């Protein structure tokens, strides 16, 4: 459904996107995960044709971007609808851009996104969550096969986020292909297919499961330890340490295989003056994400 | 705390190099331009004359007028033709010498010469009235006193002939007739440039443009769609202002309502299209405002609206031709005050139309469907 071959984009001296190739199948939810300034927005904007790429090729539904304008919808990172227009006026406006005048179809979109009670309210007076719903409704006004969503749940409360993701799943079930950028791990885990972007390059891609194995021959350990900067420093200084990450009272470590559990335990115990239990575990997406980003930063 | 705000404002300004360019370079350019261009003394004012009985004396009058450099004289075939030349805008002044002039002069009967001036241009009218005096300079009139050596003492009048000045089209020299027609254009220019000057740049700033750019909307449809509503609004405003002028300031009626409508339409289209172009080249609303101001000010000063075109040096004359308001002033005065025929105004209409087409085409070319 979406084929991206070797696309690149430079802004003056900065390489924003570097030789990226991707393929997204029909009905998939594809997540593009990356830290801030990794090139996510540049990439999604290039796929939608609103930033000119320097090289490479993009096909949507086997068409060029220009020919595929009716085949995709786009929700920008920021609210991009007209604040002075009402919900209904915005929806009708975007539908008319695609020659769609089917009132019933548009009303059903209002229903779908619980916008009916706000039909005549100005878009600028909606809460962030409803603005996001309106943006989605506008992007779907012409019933596109592909939906590009740039950080669709940024700044949205968890309940609304869940509703939106439920909706993304039902859109995918209806056969639509979703391309989602995010830097939320929990969101990334909801995608069928993921690509990690760092410094404009795809550093890993595949299903969430395969991504978890992207760190290759590494070990992941966890311990119940409260945050102590001295512990972190001592662990960082160990040769073979890839990542030290704290989640509340959980300390997670991604290490090279030669760095044994005993060495780690000894290092922590030495600082804390007590024995600490370490447990080997599976890498989660955040481990992979940070470790890969760190590696890119180092290189 | 206040220092922090001041510092922040200055830093923000410093980070907008285009704006710095606009607030530093543009005033300098304007200062030099106006310093060179703005003069009150007209030169080479086109004057149509009809001398019904040419003689050495009428030749002296013409030479007197011509030698000062204020008037550029050319001959027409009748007194009525003088008025028509001024009405058509080909001449700003005229002179009619009666066929009895020479015979009355040699009899010391103080003949009259009629001096016509275009009454639609206040500073020029005043200057022309003043400079017509060069026809009665001593150097001209010294040879025009006749005395018979055998005659009794004869009292000879101070001046051998009298110059009658006739103010055409605005005989009562009403200030509102001078200025209000042009003021309508200035107001429309302000409204149009500011209304559309921010239209695209606001979409860019509010990030609604990004959402619009992904749609199949074509560049031409976008530009025309942006222009049409503002043209309608500005057209309504034009008649609203004009109506107020008629109601409160006794503005004269146009020679043709159709031609007036055509003028309104084409002028409004030019200004709206220019505003849109400003919006397309600006990155912020502040920049758009500055560019609009830097278009409005020279338009007012170099269009013949306040300062006479004849006073603008030749080196700056081409600038006046690229100001759409110049053509508007010519047409609106022609329609409202002088009742000029279309045949004498069509070039100005075409110029305005050309500007409208040019600005629309450049806007379409300039608009990119990418961020």
Between the first and last Cα atoms of chain B, what is the distance in angstroms?
37 Å
| Topology of chain A as a string of helices (H) and strands (E) | EEEHEEHHHEHEHEEHEHEEHEH
Q: Give the strand tally of chain A.
A: 13
CATH fold name of the largest domain in chain A: Rossmann fold
Number of helices of chain B: 16
Q: What does the overall shape of chain B look like?
A: elongated
Model regions low in confidence, pLDDT < 50 over at least 5 residues of chain B: none
Largest interface: A-B, 23 and 15 residues
Helical residue percent band of chain A: 25-40%
Shape of chain A: elongated
Structure classification of chain A: alpha/beta
Radius of gyration of chain B: 27 Å
- Strands ordered across the widest β-sheet of chain A: 5-6-7-3-8-9
User: Uncertain spans of chain A, ≥5 residues at pLDDT below 50?
Assistant: none
How would you characterize the largest beta sheet of chain B?
Answer: 5 strands, mixed
N-C termini distance of chain A = 33 Å
Characterize the structure shown.
The complex is a heterodimer of chains A (299) and B (371). With 299 residues, chain A is of the alpha/beta class. Chain A has two domains: 211 residues, P-loop containing nucleotide triphosphate hydrolases (Rossmann fold, 3-Layer(aba) Sandwich); 64 residues, Alpha-Beta Plaits. Helix content of chain A is 33%, strand content 27%. Chain A contains ten helices and 13 strands. In chain A, the strands form three sheets. In chain A, strands 5-6-7-3-8-9 form a six-stranded mixed β-sheet, sandwiched between helices. A four-stranded antiparallel β-sheet of chain A has the order 11-12-10-13, with helices on both faces. In chain A, helix 2 packs parallel to helix 4 and helix 8 runs antiparallel to helix 9. The longest helix of chain A has 16 residues. Chain A starts with a strand and ends with a helix. Chain B is of the alpha/beta class. In chain B, strands 2-1-3-4-5 form a five-stranded mixed β-sheet, with helices on both faces. The model of chain B has no long low-confidence stretch (mean pLDDT 86). Chain B has two domains: 124 residues, abc type-2 transporter like domain (abc type-2 transporter like fold, 3-Layer(aba) Sandwich), CATH 3.40.1710.10; 193 residues, no CATH class. In chain B, helix 8 runs parallel beside helix 12, helix 11 packs antiparallel against helix 16 and helix 12 packs parallel to helix 16. Chains A and B meet through strand 5 of A and helix 10 of B.
């Amino acid at each position: 459904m979406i084929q991206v071959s070797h696309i690149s984009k430079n802004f003056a001296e900065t390489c924003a996107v570097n030789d990226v190739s991707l393929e997204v199948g029909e009905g998939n939810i594809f997540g593009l995960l990356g830290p801030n300034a990794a090139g996510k927005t540049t990439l999604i904007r290039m796929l939608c044709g609103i930033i000119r790429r320097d090289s490479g090729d993009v096909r949507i539904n086997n068409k060029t971007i220009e020919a595929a304008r009716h085949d995709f919808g786009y929700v920008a990172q920021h609210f991009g609808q007209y604040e002075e227009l009402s919900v209904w006026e915005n929806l009708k406006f975007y539908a008319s851009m695609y020659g769609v005048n089917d009132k019933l179809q548009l009303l059903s979109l209002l229903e779908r996104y619980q916008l009916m009670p706000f039909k005549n309210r100005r878009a600028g007076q909606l809460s962030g969550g409803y603005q996001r719903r309106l943006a989605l409704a506008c992007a779907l006004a012409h019933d596109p096969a592909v939906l590009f969503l740039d950080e669709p749940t940024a700044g949205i409360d968890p309940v609304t986020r869940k509703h939106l993701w439920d909706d993304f799943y039902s859109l995918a079930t209806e056969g639509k292909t979703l391309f989602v950028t995010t830097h939320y791990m929990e969101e990334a885990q909801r995608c069928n297919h993921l690509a990690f972007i760092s410094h404009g390059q795809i550093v890993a891609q595949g299903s969430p499961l395969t991504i978890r194995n992207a760190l290759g021959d590494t070990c992941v350990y966890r311990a119940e330890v409260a945050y102590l900067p001295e512990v972190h420093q001592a662990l960082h200084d160990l040769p073979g340490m890839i990542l030290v990450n704290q989640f509340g009272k959980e300390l997670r470590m991604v290490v090279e295989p030669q760095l044994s559990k005993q060495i780690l335990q000894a290092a922590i115990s030495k600082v804390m003056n007590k024995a600490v239990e370490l447990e080997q575990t599976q890498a989660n997406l955040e481990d992979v994400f940070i470790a890969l980003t760190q590696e890119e930063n180092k290189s | 705390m206040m220092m922090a705000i001041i510092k922040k404002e200055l830093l923000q300004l410093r980070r907008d190099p285009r704006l710095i360019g606009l607030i530093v370079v543009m005033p300098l350019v304007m200062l030099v331009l106006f310093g060179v261009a703005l003069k009150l003394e007209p030169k080479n004012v086109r004057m149509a004359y009809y001398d019904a009985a040419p003689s050495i004396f009428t030749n002296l009058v013409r030479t007197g007028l011509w030698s000062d450099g204020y008037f550029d004289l050319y001959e027409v075939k009748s007194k009525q033709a003088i008025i028509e030349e001024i009405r058509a805008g080909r001449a700003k002044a005229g002179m009619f010498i009666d066929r009895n002039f020479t015979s009355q002069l040699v009899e010391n009967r103080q003949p009259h010469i009629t001096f016509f001036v275009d009454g639609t241009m206040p500073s020029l009218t005043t200057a022309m009235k003043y400079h017509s005096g060069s026809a009665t300079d001593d150097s001209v009139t010294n040879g025009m006193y006749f005395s018979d050596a055998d005659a009794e003492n004869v009292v000879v009048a101070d001046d051998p002939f009298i110059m009658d000045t006739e103010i055409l089209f605005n005989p009562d020299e009403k200030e509102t007739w001078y200025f209000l027609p042009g003021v309508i254009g200035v107001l429309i220019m302000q409204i149009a440039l500011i209304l559309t000057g921010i239209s695209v740049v606001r979409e860019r700033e509010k990030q609604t443009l990004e959402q619009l750019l992904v749609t199949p909307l074509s560049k031409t449809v976008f530009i025309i769609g942006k222009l049409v509503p503002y043209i309608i609004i500005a057209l309504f405003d034009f008649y609203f202002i004009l109506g107020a002028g008629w109601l409160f300031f006794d503005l004269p009626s146009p020679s043709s309502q159709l031609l007036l409508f055509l003028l309104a339409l084409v002028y409004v289209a030019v200004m709206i299209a220019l505003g849109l172009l400003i919006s397309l080249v600006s990155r912020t609303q502040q920049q758009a405002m500055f560019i609009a101001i830097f278009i409005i000010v020279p338009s007012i000063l170099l269009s013949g609206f306040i300062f006479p075109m004849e006073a603008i040096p030749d080196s700056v004359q081409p600038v006046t031709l690229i100001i759409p308001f110049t053509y508007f002033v010519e047409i609106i005065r022609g329609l409202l005050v002088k009742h000029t025929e279309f045949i004498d105004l069509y070039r100005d209409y075409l110029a305005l139309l050309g500007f409208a087409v040019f600005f629309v085409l450049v806007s379409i070319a300039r608009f990119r469907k990418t961020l």
